[in-house]
Amino acid sequence: MTKLSEGTIEALSNGTGVSDAVLQLVNIRKLDGGNGPSRFRVMMSDGRHTLSSFMLSTQLNHMAEENILAPNCICNLKRHVTNILKDGRRVVIILEIDVIKPAKDVAGRIGDPTPYTEGQSKGPQSAPVPENRPPLQPQNRNEAVNRGLNRDFGKKAPSVMPNTPGGSSKVVPIASLNPYQSKWTIRARVTNKSSIRTWSNSRGDGKLFSMEIVDESGEIRVTGFNQEVDKFYSLIEAGKVYYISKGSLKLANKQYTSVKNDYEMTLNGESTIIPCEDSCDVPMVQCDFVSIGDLENRDKDAIVDVIGVCKSVDDISRLTTKSNREVSKRTLSLMDMSGKVVTVTLWGEEAEKFDGSSQPVVAIKGAKLSDFGGRSLSASFSSTLMINPDIPEAYKLRGWYDKEGHAMDGQSLTEVKGGSGGGNTNWKSLSDVKTEHLGHGDKADYYTCVATIVFLRKENCLYQACPSQDCNKKVVDQQNGMFRCEKCDKEFPNFKYRLILSANIADYGDNQWVTCFQESAEAILGQNAAYLGQLKDSNEAAFDEVFQHANFNTFVFRNRVKLETYNDESRIKATVMDVKPVDHKEYSKRLILNIRKLAANH
Amino acid sequence: MASLLDTSKPRINCSMLSQHIGRGVCFVGRVEKVHPTGKTFSVSDGEGKSATVELNEPLEEELSGIVEVIGMVSSKGVITTTTYNILREDKGIPFDLELYNEALKVIHDFPQYYPFEVAASG
């Protein structure tokens, strides 16, 4: 006689996992679903106990319908998942089961099993308000589900859904997830899994990982911390489909992701993640691509999805971050059918692994848009980089590029270094700045202009600053040979001179008072601050000479303007960010171009 | 001819020579061929067209690269030089003859914005 795996029922009821348990099917009962396939409730015996809270997963319904699973047959329970109801009772969902001895070959019940009683519950569950209900919203939905379940183990909840093996909770679409329901299961594909990141701050340390998942209805971002990292990280593979249940939902922090969902999910102690074999109808990825030409219209720091052909890629370079970490970096230029090109920066492993030969189609989900050089993109740790993805947009791009795109130069949105007239420099004349009210908005405005210095204020252009490396705070002269820095909270026997130069610059139309700090001031004066400080103290005539000499020189200024308010008075403050000599060739070209444009428009 | 230096000398290229016959001009171009006598040489402008320049005295130095010639246009379209400048290639920013030609066209297309005549006779 086939030996049953005694103790299995007890183990299952206590939540201990079992594998390959040999059980006898005692009874099988069909429950009518409302809308959807029927469910089969099964009673199994391990020779010692019986348990009636088994449910057959719908993908196995045929085994019941074809009478393969019939009373008395001996089975090997290969895969299952256990769900706990609100009242503590367990339901075992049979995911995979083999009949090792058909019912007709089995005489009768093996052994003398008795129904296993768990702690709670054969009593009807009617209390509508179980203790630990989260303070938030009335969980009407769950109640209905639970009440239904407790009576009948499988009556469908009024709402919906493509049901599947996922347990007593039906599979719901990602789009329906919200913070007010906790008992759900979704079936989704992992499109992007981040690496484990650790942090350490004053409040302690921990680790986390995040991923993005997608199903037919939408997508959502999922994060797991600490224990959940240990539990799930190695189980999850990008590209595979899983049943996920009971994560916590909260409002999404859209700053960090381009995932389209108002909510994001955090895995907790109750969450479960189970691999799903039947995954063909779960989509591979959800992207909402922005045309490269449109990037100019998006705000900086926006998170976008893009796809294009990699026209060229630069060599990898390495830099050291502020925290003294070495990181690899690589830039590539991406072009799409808008004819525009944008520079994309890759980091770390992605940068190292990237192979741009043969101009692949590159898609990035969740790239960060920056206004560096006009407009440029960066693949952050939460972006997904796809090379030659298997999606229709990629094929379209490939076709277009092979036919026409490869011959185009494309117009780059990213200003190439060294070209002051490249891409998107915001050239303005000084009268433009005033008529266009630059700087009057919430944020500062930046512009570039060609202007001539007409006045330099040499009084108070130098101040005594803290000699420490990164500190430029003005020091207080203690009159005893020592100088005190309040910021560093230290006294020094010396200081370093730094420049704050007030100047007036002008062009054909208007003039502008600007402030130049150290670097730009030194560039304009042609001397460094330390030397000037010395001159001021020792040779006033030579000091004046420097200023005379610097006057009436013309430069390309990159300025920042912002409206500042001091005690009820608002004034535009302009600061010089950068000073460069005029590139006459570029300037001439630009002027000729503008003249011709003006002429054409008449 | 001192008087020539007092008048306005519009900058021209080869295609404008015929409109300036008998007048003082300023021509910038690249030296092509120097005649063995050293009294005449050819220059090409930013559009690639050529003109002939005549000197009163033979050349005393090597002439190459870009030159600026101030003189008068004869009835035969030859420039008789009053004075010339060599724009040295080894100093400063290299001269872009094509860009210069573009600027020239702008000056001639919009004379109302470039009233050199008025300035000179003042």
From TrEMBL, chain A:
Q: Which residues form the Replication factor A C-terminal domain?
A: 446-591
Query: Care to name a GO molecular-function term for this sequence?
Result: DNA binding
Please list where the region (Disordered) is annotated: 106-172
Principal localisation: nucleus
**Mind telling me which InterPro entries this protein's record contains?**
Euk_RPA1_DBD_C, NA-bd_OB-fold, NA-bd_OB_tRNA, Rep_factor-A_C, Rep_factor-A_N, REPA_OB_2, Rfa1
Q: What is this protein called?
A: Replication protein A subunit
Protein purpose:
As part of the heterotrimeric replication protein A complex (RPA/RP-A), binds and stabilizes single-stranded DNA intermediates, that form during DNA replication or upon DNA stress. It prevents their reannealing and in parallel, recruits and activates different proteins and complexes involved in DNA metabolism. Thereby, it plays an essential role both in DNA replication and the cellular response to DNA damage.
| Any Pfam family | Rep-A_N
Positions of the Replication factor-A protein 1 N-terminal domain: 4-101
The GO annotation for biological process reads: DNA recombination; DNA repair; DNA replication; heart development
What are the annotated GO cellular component locations? PML body
Oligomer status and interactors: Component of the heterotrimeric canonical replication protein A complex (RPA).
Cross-referenced NCBIfam families: rpa1 (TIGR00617)
Keywords, in A-Z order: DNA replication, DNA-binding, Metal-binding, Nucleus, Zinc, Zinc-finger
Where does it live in the cell?
A: Nucleus, PML body
Q: Which residues form the OB domain?
A: 184-264
Q: Which family does it belong to?
A: Belongs to the replication factor A protein 1 family.
Q: Which positions fall inside the Replication protein A OB domain?
A: 292-388
TrEMBL record, chain B:
Which subcellular locations apply to this protein? Nucleus
Q: Which GO terms describe its cellular component?
A: DNA replication factor A complex; site of double-strand break
CDD domains xref list? RPA3
Q: Which UniProt keywords apply?
A: Nucleus
Under Gene3D superfamilies, the record lists:
Nucleic acid-binding proteins (2.40.50.140)
UniProt keyword annotation of Nucleus present: yes
Q: What InterPro entries is this protein classified in?
A: NA-bd_OB-fold (IPR012340), Rfa2 (IPR013970)
Q: Which Pfam families match?
A: Rep_fac-A_3
Q: Which GO terms describe its biological process?
A: base-excision repair; DNA replication; double-strand break repair via homologous recombination; mismatch repair; nucleotide-excision repair
List GO molecular-function terms, semicolon-separated.
Answer: damaged DNA binding; single-stranded DNA binding
Family the entry assigns: Belongs to the replication factor A protein 3 family.
The protein, known as: Replication protein A 14 kDa subunit
Organism lineage string: Eukaryota, Metazoa, Chordata, Craniata, Vertebrata
